[in-house]
Amino acid sequence: MKKIGKVLSRRVPAKRYLLSLGLAVFNVLCSLSLFAQDGSAGIDEATNKVKGYFESGCNLMYAIGAVVGLVGAVKVFNKWKPLGNRIRIRWQPPGLVAVSS
């Protein structure tokens, strides 16, 4: 029993050491990629990026609006179509009489 405890006590500090070393290396690598900027420079850069995407965003919205409009038109037409068929059936015999004469 004492032997197992000694082995575990040796492994746990080694695991903690490797974990802390890995976290320290990760922290250093992540902090190297961060650069501080002036606040106004960041705002100007964001404004320029948004202006660059505005035209393509408008075109995307037009395309989405067109698809939604077409789907809505098809739904309305399909709901209106049975009523239109009933009206055409009612008026069909007089129409045939008018055409045949």
Fold and architecture overview:
- The chain has two helices and no strands.
- It is mainly α.
- The longest helix has 62 residues, at 39-100.
- Mean pLDDT is 73; it is low at 96-101.
- Helices cover 92% and strands 0% of the residues.
Shape: elongated
Rg over CA atoms: 37 Å
Mean pLDDT: 73
Terminal CA distance? 113 Å
Give the beta-strand count: 0
Low-confidence stretches: 96-101
Instruction: State the helicity in percent bands.
Output: over 70%
What is the N-to-C succession of helices and strands?
HH
What does the main sheet amount to? none
Q: Count of DSSP helices?
A: 2
Percent of residues in beta strands:
under 5%
Structural class by helix and strand composition: mainly alpha
Signal peptide: 1-36
Transmembrane segments: 60-78
Keywords: Membrane, Signal, Transmembrane, Transmembrane helix
Pfam family, one: DUF4134
List its salient traits.
101 residues, mainly alpha, disordered C terminus
State the gist of this model.
Keywords: Membrane, Signal, Transmembrane, Transmembrane helix. The protein is mainly alpha-helical and 101 residues long.
Topology readout:
Blueprint (H helix, E strand, L loop, with lengths): L1 H31 L6 H62 L1
